[in-house]
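Morning!

This is the sequence you dropped in the shared folder:
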Amino acid sequence: MFSSHDRADDNQGTGAGVQAARKVGVDPNRGGTIRATSQDCFASNSDTFDLIFVDGLHHHEQVIEDVRNALDVLRPGGVIVLHDCLPLSCVAQYREQSHFIWNGDVWKALVEIRTWPEVDTATCLIDHGLGIVVPRANYQRMLRTIDYDAGLRFAMSASS
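The structure's back. Tokens below.
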């Protein structure tokens, strides 16, 4: 498993319950097995992975970069999972962390990825929202360009 923020080798990270012969966790500050940014790790990485879990900087631009890099090292049949795709509140989706629970604007990355023809996506109402990204033709992709400066906003429509 590869992650941009996962604490794969400690008992508190999301990778703790994953049974795998090899797990890699990347974090520049704490936890994980590699102390680096995701950009530095992807740049020096020569491995491929079946599952890549992205739970990093919580800014949509970084998530987009991580997904593009992850697609390059994903094995055939592999899956990318994004965390924090369904913010729990309006405050939780602010770009800068202002409260303990913070999802950032990761959801914007998943909206943008839905416009890509080469990947298919799904969103699961689990935890803080998991986005599933699979490299295959996207026959139900969004056909509009995302203009973040035009005031794109998140609204939770699922009941809790």
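Headline: Helices lie at 38-44, 60-73, 106-113.

More detail when I'm at my desk.
O.
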